[in-house]
Design brief:
The complex is a heterotrimer of chains A (about 500), B (about 500) and C (about 120). In chain A, about 75% of the residues lie in helices and about 5% in strands. Chain A is mainly α and about 500 residues long. Chain A has a domain of about 210 residues. With about 500 residues, chain B is mainly alpha-helical. Chain B has a domain of about 220 residues. Helices cover about 75% and strands about 0% of the residues of chain B. Chain B is built from 20 helices and 2 strands. In chain B, strands 1-2 form a two-stranded antiparallel sheet. The longest helix of chain B has 30 residues. Classes of the chains: A mainly alpha (about 500), B mainly alpha (about 500), C mainly alpha (about 120).
Chain lengths: ~500, ~500, ~120
């Protein structure tokens, strides 16, 4: 299979997988889950098989159709997209494993729809990761919004539907109202929307227009959840936990920050943006989001909502890192996408496992739960440490690079923000960890549950292991991402 | 070459028109088959004509070999070809898929009258598209209008009757205004052939009768085309007509009047009347903007699904007019393209409504509950067409909005405001489409679920054809884009720079 | 005298306005239709009047004729009259059906019934 074919297969595979899952569901639930795992494994194989040649500098590209003159549906693999696709496809396997335990453990209805739409969402995610231009990216970006809607509204009762309405309302409004005009503006100015090393807008726009276009992009890419367009993310927490874990800690939100990074690096070009006036505000906006979301997270009583606001803050780390506009910081942005993914999915898995085993969702209910669910809470602890950025977890690596980039740019706002938010993260995660392990259990009658079903526990152990592994073995990833900022 | 090939423009009208009385004479069981066959044949002719226009430019046809301007001329250029495809395509899809739904609405015993009226409407609409003669356009317009009054009134709902009466009054007033206009022009120039009129009107261009004629024609056609604020006949007529008839009329009836309006304004008036280009833009643009905002706004709060979609049509006509009022290649391409794409989207939506109607008696939003589960395939197609109506990329609606926004962007600063309107309108479309989707997916199913009538296979096929066409022309818009950019160039070629 | 000299256009304009007034202002559907018919008839007169030549005859080739009235407007208006009659007939048909269904042909009463 040539690299071009592999790209197309990677995008199409989850779609056919979805069909297969729907058909397999008619035979039985076991076949359905087997089909999901099989699709996930095949996708991961496909995506990962592209990585070696990419490390050697190959950039396979393939064009599918020309929609309008200069606007085509095309795919091209570059380091950022490779990283994102590899991450999403790897975690999908683990997440599918987890879903089996979670969905069965909670006896959720409409499980076939759940697995099918999950596969469709993954197809859209891979499409975003491999998109060769803004138009293709936007196509899959919207597809991802629509494909995840049934997953968010899964429960189907009134308050869930209302939350799902917020979810799709915010995402569609920002993407149609701001992102799309930004794309059309880019096209009008540059005559193309292709991602190209060094950017395509240099010299095409002048003065405040650059800052304005950047604002349209950043706020229009609602999936990046930069305040004030973050509201959809807490609303999405009504979804079943596997959805929150893979989609709203990895695929959807990372699609947002990935797009922002890609726009900054490949549409504007970091040097051009650094030299343009009126673009510095993005660091402040991201910094504000980080601090504000951390403060809000600090005040949450519901575990999943706390994690959601923590995600809002962590996403803005990526945006801020990208906005520092220095090579080291761009690398930091890329690897923070990975580091946060491993850590946050572990946290969500743990939250879901707690819900499955003990039906607990509020923080105060977690006293002493570490003794009943030691594996889960150990994983939770590792995830929390990664969020704070303590070695030996992945979160430390990315923070290191972001800090290095901030020093390089003498950007003291970013420096201060990282320090302050680290303190805040510690302030809201450590009490939970302490409470879970050392506080006496409460509740009458005393709880009798143990760990969640084994697939769930296995999944969260794996992601916790990945969080630590990323601290130790991040060489290839760094090697790959250095190419993003290497001279074209 | 096939000897019939040269007669295509005439056959385009003659086939459905001659078939109409035959449908009445045939045995009852065959009337639907005959009507559908005639419609498909007309579609084939339209496709053939389009191919000829693309290959070798506009086709002119002299009735009875009398040379224009003395004889009656038919002519087919890119714009008419695009329109013919829309008209015959919509009619064929609706007829092929709509038999069961129509039989239920009209009644088996009156069905053949209905099909005869349908073919007359088709002949009239196609006739307008091929005519190059102002008076012929009037006659065909009245043939199609009279027939479509019958189509609208054919349904079982008695509220259709006052609605159709209003439609008849306003339609006739519009047509009569148009008649006054061409009378005044004829008085001054002595010609009815559009091409000839364009040349001769120059000598008398600034005389009052010509100015009055321009006003009468514009207002009359605006009435027929339901341009805001002359749209009041449209919502009720669409709401209470038989569902299949709504699908047909919503896809093409108003578009045809828009077509005549564009023809007259660009071919005859803009280059001859000083300041007309400015007036055209300056009067129509605010109306178009208001149409988009008011139409979408009302649709957002409407409870009846069909009326909701009807108000959305008012807004979509606004998009077409907005594109035209820019008087630029980009704007006119967007306008003509949207004419095609909106027909695809709205036709698909109303066909899906026809399939869902037996399940959701009343067709209010709250009646839609549980539709997504009862008819998942049909509803999926509804969503696809709905996305096209919003203008989501990957669907046809996106392509025309892209052109519209690009054309507005070319204006510079004032264009930003227009982009704002288009974006706002699209967001409002998100709201009204999503209200339907949400109530169908998560609404309470009706108390006593209607007999779960399966969607008839032909109707399902028609709906999916429309839905897939929305996707196909969103990814490969080559054909309509070629026709509409050529049409835009032709229209603009008649306007002095 | 120029204003009065074109009296036939005045007839056209006045008839047109009377008809239009009835269409808009009358609530009785049959009266609306009568207004519509007047409205159309006015336009017919406009066409006929413009074709008339002072002293002209029918355009039949003969020795004595010096000027012909244009026959084309008459031909056109013949078609328009047919259209007008069809419209009126259809309109009356709809009014009959409305009367059957609603028991009234007053616009306001029908609206009242529908609102209930």
């Amino acid at each position: 299979m040539s690299a071009q074919q592999t790209i197309l297969v990677a995008v199409a595979l989850p779609l056919f997988g979805a069909l297969g899952i729907a058909l397999a569901a008619r035979i039985g639930a076991n076949f359905r889950e087997a089909a999901t795992l099989l699709t996930a494994a095949a996708l991961a194989y496909c995506v990962w098989s592209l990585a070696p040649s990419l490390l050697e500098g190959a950039r396979p590209a393939v064009s599918v159709a020309e929609v309008l003159p200069g606007i085509e549906i095309a795919f091209a693999v570059e380091p950022l997209g490779m990283l994102f696709a590899a991450l999403a496809s790897l975690l999908w396997i683990i997440n599918s494993l987890y879903s089996v335990g979670y969905m069965r453990g909670n006896r959720e209805p409409h499980q076939t729809r759940f697995y099918v739409m999950f596969a469709v969402s993954l197809a859209a995610t891979i499409g975003i990761a491999f998109a060769a231009n803004l138009f293709t990216l936007f196509l899959f970006y919207e597809a991802l919004t629509f494909a995840t809607y049934p997953l968010v509204a899964h429960k189907g009762d009134k308050s869930t539907v209302a939350s799902a309405r917020v979810y799709i309302g915010v995402l569609l409004t920002t993407s149609i109202g701001l992102f799309l005009p930004a794309i059309i503006w880019t096209y009008a100015a540059a005559g193309t929307t292709d991602f190209a090393a060094g950017g395509i807008l240099e010299g095409k726009l002048h003065g405040p227009a650059v800052g304005l276009l950047l604002a349209l992009f950043v706020l229009g890419i609602g999936k990046a959840a930069v305040m004030p367009v973050h509201r959809w993310l807490p609303a999405a927490m009504v979804a079943p936990t596997p959805v929150s874990a893979l989609l709203h800690a990895v695929a959807v939100v990372k699609a947002g920050v990935f797009t922002v990074t890609k726009v900054i690096v490949y549409i504007f070009g970091i040097d051009y943006l650094f030299a343009s006036p009126g673009t510095g505000w993005l660091v402040y906006a991201a910094a504000f989001t980080i601090i504000a979301a951390s403060v809000v997270a600090f005040r949450q009583q519901n575990l999943k909502r706390l994690l959601a606001y923590s995600t809002v803050a962590q996403l803005s780390y990526v945006v801020m890192a990208a906005a520092i506009l220095k090579p080291l910081a761009e690398i930091g942005a890329a690897i923070h996408i990975v580091a946060h993914a491993f850590g946050k999915i572990t946290l969500f898995f743990a939250a879901g496992a707690i819900y499955t085993a003990a039906k607990k969702t509020e923080l105060h209910e977690l006293r002493g739960i570490g003794r009943r669910m030691p594996v889960t809470m150990a994983a939770f602890t590792i995830g929390a440490l990664s969020m704070i950025g303590v070695p030996p977890t992945g979160g430390f690596v990315s923070k290191w690079y972001i800090l290095a980039g901030a020093f390089e740019a003498d950007n003291y706002v970013a420096l201060f923000t990282i320090v302050a938010s680290t303190a805040l993260n510690a302030a809201y995660f450590l009490p939970i960890v302490y409470m879970a392990w050392f506080a006496p259990e409460s509740g009458k009658p005393p709880p009798t549950h143990g760990e969640a079903p084994w697939p769930s526990v296995l999944a969260l152990s794996l992601t916790a292991a990945l969080t630590i592994a990323f601290f130790l073995f991040n060489g290839p990833v760094l090697e790959l991402e250095r190419q993003v900022v290497a001279a074209p | 070459m096939n000897p019939l090939a040269a007669q295509m423009p005439a056959l385009q009208v003659i086939v459905p028109m001659l078939m109409a009385p035959f449908v009445l004479l045939l045995p009852r069981g065959l009337s639907w088959a005959a009507a559908a066959a005639a419609s498909l044949l007309a579609f084939g002719i339209a496709a053939q004509l389009t191919a000829t226009v693309i290959d070798s430019g506009p086709v002119a046809y002299q009735m009875g070999s009398w040379p224009a301007p003395y004889g009656i001329e038919l002519s087919v250029d890119a714009l008419s070809a695009l329109l013919l495809l829309v008209v015959t395509g919509a009619s064929s899809l609706a007829l092929v898929g709509g038999r069961a739904s129509l039989a239920a609405a009209v009644g088996e015993d009156r069905e053949h009258y209905f099909y005869a009226a349908w073919l007359l409407a088709l002949a009239g609409l196609a006739g307008i598209a091929v005519s190059a003669d102002a008076f012929n356009i009037f006659v065909f317009m009245e043939i199609s209008s009279l027939a479509s009054y019958v189509l609208v009134a054919g349904g079982p709902d008695r509220r259709a009757l006052p609605a159709v009466f209003k439609y008849l009054i306003m339609g006739t007033v519009g047509a009569t205004f148009y008649l006054i206009g061409i009378g005044l022009i004829y008085m001054m120039t002595g010609t009815l052939n559009l091409a000839d009129m364009e040349l001769r009107i120059a000598e008398v261009a600034d005389k009052e009768p010509i100015l009055a004629a321009a006003g009468f024609i514009t207002v009359g056609l605006a009435l027929k085309a339901a341009i805001f604020p002359l749209h009041v006949w449209l919502p009720n007529a669409y709401t209470y007509a038989p569902h299949i008839a709504t699908a047909f009329l919503a896809a093409c009836a108003t578009k045809v009047s828009l077509y005549v309006l564009l023809r007259f304004d660009f071919f005859v008036f803009q280059q001859n009347l000083s300041g007309h280009a400015f007036q055209f833009a300056a009067y129509l643009m605010p109306l178009a903007i208001l149409g988009i905002l008011v139409g979408s706004g009302v649709a957002m709060f409407e409870r009846n699904v069909k009326r909701l979609l009807a108000f959305s049509s008012v807004a979509q006509i606004g998009y077409i007019m907005l594109g035209a009022s820019l008087v630029s290649i980009g704007g006119l391409t967007a306008a003509t393209l949207h004419l095609f794409n909106h027909a695809l989207a709205k036709g698909g939506l109303f066909l899906a409504i026809a399939a869902l109607a037996p399940l959701a008696a009343g067709l209010r939003l709250k009646d839609m509950g549980g539709m997504a589960r009862q008819a998942p395939w049909t509803f999926a197609a509804f969503v696809v067409a709905g996305l096209s109506l919003i203008g989501i990329p990957g669907t046809a609606g996106f392509v025309s909005k892209w052109y519209l926004v690009s054309a507005a962007m070319a204006l510079g600063a004032p264009g930003i405001a227009l982009i704002g309107v288009v974006v706002l309108g699209s967001l409002m479309a998100v709201v009204y489409v999503w209200r339907i989707v949400e109530s169908a997916c998560f609404g309470e199913p009706p108390e006593n679920p209607a007999r779960s009538a399966a969607v008839p296979r032909p109707l399902g096929a028609a709906i999916w054809t429309a839905a897939l066409a929305n996707v196909y022309f969103g990814i490969a818009p080559g054909l309509p884009l070629r026709l509409s950019s050529s049409a835009a160039a032709t229209l603009l070629g008649h306007v002095p720079a | 005298m120029q204003v009065l000299g074109i009296y036939y256009y005045w007839v056209f304009a006045i008839l047109l306005m009377i008809g239009f007034y009835a269409v808009i202002a009358k609530l009785n559907l049959v009266k609306k239709l009568i207004g519509l018919t007047l409205f159309q008839a006015a336009v017919f007169l406009l066409y006929i009047a413009m074709g008339k030549m002072e002293g002209g005859t029918a355009p039949i080739y003969g020795a004595s004729a010096e000027a012909f009235s244009s026959p084309l407007p008459q031909v056109l208006i013949l078609t328009a009259i047919v259209v007008g009659i069809s419209t009126t007939a259809l309109g009356l048909g709809i009014v009959v059906r409305i009367k059957e269904e609603y028991g009234s042909i007053q616009e306001d009463e029908i609206q009242e019934i529908d609102r209930r």
